[in-house]
Write a structure and sequence with these properties.
The structure is a single chain. This protein is of the alpha+beta class. It has 21 helices and 23 strands. Among the domains are: about 260 residues, Beta-Lactamase, CATH 3.30.450; about 160 residues, Heat Shock Protein 90; about 110 residues, 3-Layer(aba) Sandwich (Rossmann fold), CATH 3.40.50. Strands 1, 2, 3, 4, 5 and 6 form a six-stranded antiparallel beta sheet that branches. Helix 4 runs antiparallel to helix 11 and helix 15 packs across helix 16. This is histidine kinase.
């Protein structure tokens, strides 16, 4: 048979060249004609099968990558918006500090008496930042009465009431002027104008002029991302400060489309082109208290750049895989007929999502491919589901972690900023308090004394604000002690009733066996009062305010702060309007308030937050709009029982004759001068030192010194606590009283008394008497 087959095969060429018999032609005509699709069908179907196999994962991957790109771009845009918001707050804080200088000078009796010369002397004595200067103008015609940028005695001329000065008088509010080129200092600057009224009528306009470079430096200190541009624009659309090429662009107008957006909106984001011609995305925010606009511009192609890179790499890989699959399909198509057609059918079924048959095809290679297709169908379904779930979980976890990290960094940054401002403001308040005390002792009549006492009350209110700022920043000097929380709450009931309205029902649940808490009683009372006042404002139509105290054991996973141990929980619940979920992340930030202007300082809940964290506990806030809000304080359990109250000390005799010598150690010259002068007026012998080494030298000279009164935070490498320890080694009988307006990293006092700044003279005298 083999030989016969060879002959037949070899004779095909001859038979093909000869005419076929008629019978054979008839038989051949009865065969079905071979269509062109049978020659191309196997290859085409293999190609279609390969496409059907690869298309679903390619499309799924494209969708996932597209979603990842969109999310990353949104994250970048949100970061741009948040950066603009934080810079606007920083600029507003800078203006607030400048406003403090103005209001401190406005409170001067010299201005009230119209004594411009005395006021100018006080203004020149203020240690302003470099390039700052005061100017006083008459409210009637804008005539310049004082200019500290000029040498004393320089004749003054000119002046008029420009639009910003008139606006400050009409609105009775401070106002930032537009950028101008100062002929006095030969530099570009802006001015913060504060109107001064006497008996309800406009009298003066006191201005603080600041170089525009201060705001450029403020933007530069924020360390924006490389390529980003920060700018501050005044209400006329002129650039005040800019991080890139400020010498070239400060003083120029912003692009018209930006200026128009700044004028119409308080915040926004828009595409545009920078002054250098670079396509950008611009996010801008108007400062809360003044009409300045802070804008951050990022290169447009930078947003989503990483997403684009990953998308292009993935597409390149997908194209490569697709080409490889097509080449393999073409290779397999050669010499395969029926089994390959069956494989194409099974691949098509896989593409449709139908079950792939597992029967053998009679060809080893085809059977192997058939098995691979069946396995691929199962793996593809499992892998697609697993990958989608992993990507979804990873994205959710990353977004949550980034949000928590950003919030923590923002709260810490705001805490440091507010703590530093409060520290400096405490020294200013202390100096003002000392000056007012001396003026009170010299006041010639009751009217003068009443005015001075009003100033003292203003100092007390300022001290209250700084204590709340210190509380948020966790830099206040707390006096923690074991507290009977139930007893404190019962004592506060009458105070709370006065703070609430008659249509609000006050309830207290104070169980027996409540543990003592370790906290500062005054700060706890203030915190509870702040929460009660917020609850009152949330219930304009009346309601119920409920205080519930209980003992709790906390595990690390029960609170966001991972607290562990025994705590006293104080939950304060109201039935008010609740808080919008969009506002909840900001309720503990200082100066944040949803109340109308003038009806809330925004420091109440920030004091609660700072007090709880500094006390070793925490605070949580839960709210349901339309149902109410619950503020929960967690305070650590005290290891000992509360102390019994001590009887108040007898009042200091007015005619007491002092013979003691006090060494005052204070690096702030103004505070040292005012405190020393007040002590001398009351009969004390006073010696002064500005640093610890000077104080030790006086102690070693052998002078009779009875009391060391020292600030804690001082230059020179030795703080007040360390000074007191060395002084007691030299003089074991020496009485020590310490003071501070800033309690960050406060060293152990080891039994020494502490008087927080700012203090009044009667408080200082009581503290000195308590040393006896």
């Amino acid at each position: 048979m083999a030989d016969g087959e060879d002959v037949a095969a070899g004779g095909r060429g001859i038979a093909a060249a000869m005419p076929a018999p008629a019978s054979l032609r008839v038989a051949a005509s009865k065969r079905p004609a071979r269509t062109s699709s049978s020659a191309l069908g196997v290859r085409g179907r293999l190609l279609l099968a390969a496409v059907a196999l690869l298309l679903p994962p390619l499309l799924g991957g494209a969708l996932l990558l597209g979603g990842a790109y969109t999310r990353e771009r949104r994250v970048a845009e949100r970061h741009l918006d948040e950066t603009a918001h934080m810079l606007a707050l920083a600029v507003d804080q800078q203006l607030g500090q400048s406003q403090a200088y103005l209001r401190a000078l406005i409170a001067s009796p010299a201005l009230a008496q119209g004594d411009v010369a005395a006021l100018e002397a006080q203004a020149r004595a203020i240690d302003l930042p470099k390039g700052y200067w005061f100017r006083l103008a008459a409210a009637s015609d804008g005539r310049v009465l004082m200019n500290t940028a000029l040498p004393p005695g320089t004749p003054l001329s000119g002046g008029q009431l420009g639009p910003n000065l008139r606006a400050a008088l009409e609105t009775r509010r401070s106002r930032v002027g537009n950028l101008f080129n100062s002929t006095v200092t030969n530099q570009q600057a802006i001015a913060l104008h504060e109107p001064v009224f006497r008996n309800g009528a406009p009298a003066y306009i006191l201005s603080l002029v600041m170089p525009s470079t201060e705001f450029t430096q403020l933007l530069t200190d924020q360390q924006l991302r490389a390529g980003w541009i920060g700018a501050v624009v005044d209400r006329s659309g002129v650039i005040i400060a800019r991080t890139r090429d400020p010498e070239r662009y400060v003083g120029q107008k912003a692009r018209p489309e930006f200026a128009e957006a700044y004028a119409k909106q308080t915040s926004g984001r828009m595409p545009g082109v920078s002054l250098e011609g670079m396509p950008t995305i611009v996010s801008f925010r108007r400062t809360p208290s003044q009409d300045l606009v802070v804008a951050i511009a990022a290169p447009r192609d930078e947003l989503g750049r990483e997403a684009w890179r990953g998308l292009l790499l993935a597409l390149a890989g997908a194209v490569g895989l697709f080409a490889l699959a097509m080449g393999l399909a073409l290779r397999l198509a050669r010499g395969i007929t029926y089994p390959v057609e069956q494989l194409a059918a099974r691949a098509a079924a896989l593409g449709r999502g139908a079950p792939v048959p597992t029967e053998t095809l009679g060809l080893a290679e085809a059977d192997a491919v058939a098995q691979v297709l069946a396995d691929a169908s199962q793996r593809l379904a499992r892998s697609s589901a697993e990958q989608e779930e992993k990507v979804r979980a990873a994205v959710a976890e990353a977004e949550s972690a980034n949000t928590a990290l950003f919030q923590a960094h923002r709260m810490e940054a705001v805490g440091r900023l507010t703590g530093g401002i409060a520290h400096d403001f405490n020294n200013l308040l202390q100096a003002v308090s000392g000056c007012l005390d001396m003026l009170l002792r010299r006041a010639p009549d009751d009217r003068s004394r009443d005015l001075i006492r009003a100033g003292m009350q203003a100092v007390d209110r300022g001290a209250g604000l700084t204590r709340q700022l210190m509380a948020f920043a966790r830099r206040q000097a707390l006096r923690p002690e074991p507290l009977d929380v139930a007893d404190l709450m019962r004592t506060m009931r009458q105070l709370l009733m006065h703070a609430l309205r008659a249509d609000i029902v006050l309830e207290m649940v104070l169980p027996q066996g409540l543990w003592p808490a370790m906290a500062d009683s005054a700060q706890l009372e203030l915190a509870l009062l702040n929460v009660a006042v917020n609850a009152r404002d949330a219930m304009p139509n009346g309601g119920v305010l409920r205080f519930v105290a209980e003992n709790v054991h906390l595990a690390p996973d029960q609170t966001e702060d991972a607290l562990k141990g025994q705590f006293v929980r104080l939950a304060v619940t109201d039935t008010g309007s609740g808080i919008d979920p969009a506002v909840l992340p900001h309720v503990f930030e200082p100066f944040f308030t949803t109340k109308e202007v003038g009806k809330g300082s925004g420091l109440g809940l920030s004091q609660v937050y700072g007090f709880a964290r500094q006390s070793g506990g925490t605070v949580h806030l839960d709210s349901v709009p339309g149902v109410g809000t619950t503020v929960t304080l967690f305070l650590p359990r005290a290891a000992t029982a509360p102390r019994r109250p001590v009887a108040p000390a007898e009042a200091r005799p007015a005619d007491r004759v002092e013979t003691r010598t006090v060494l005052v150690v204070e690096d702030d010259a103004t505070v040292s001068a005012t405190v020393s002068a007040s002590l001398k007026e009351r009969g004390f012998t006073v010696m002064q030192a500005s640093r610890a080494d000077q104080a030790l030298a006086l102690l070693q000279d052998g002078d009779t010194i009875d009391i060391l009164f020292s600030d804690i935070v001082m230059p020179g490498g030795m703080n007040g606590v360390e000074l007191a320890k060395v002084a007691r080694l030299l003089r074991p009988d020496l009485a020590v009283l310490l003071t501070t307006g800033y309690a960050e990293n406060l060293p152990p006092l080891e039994g020494m008394r502490l008087l927080p700044k700012p203090y009044r003279m009667d408080q200082l005298l009581d503290a000195l008497d308590a040393l006896d």
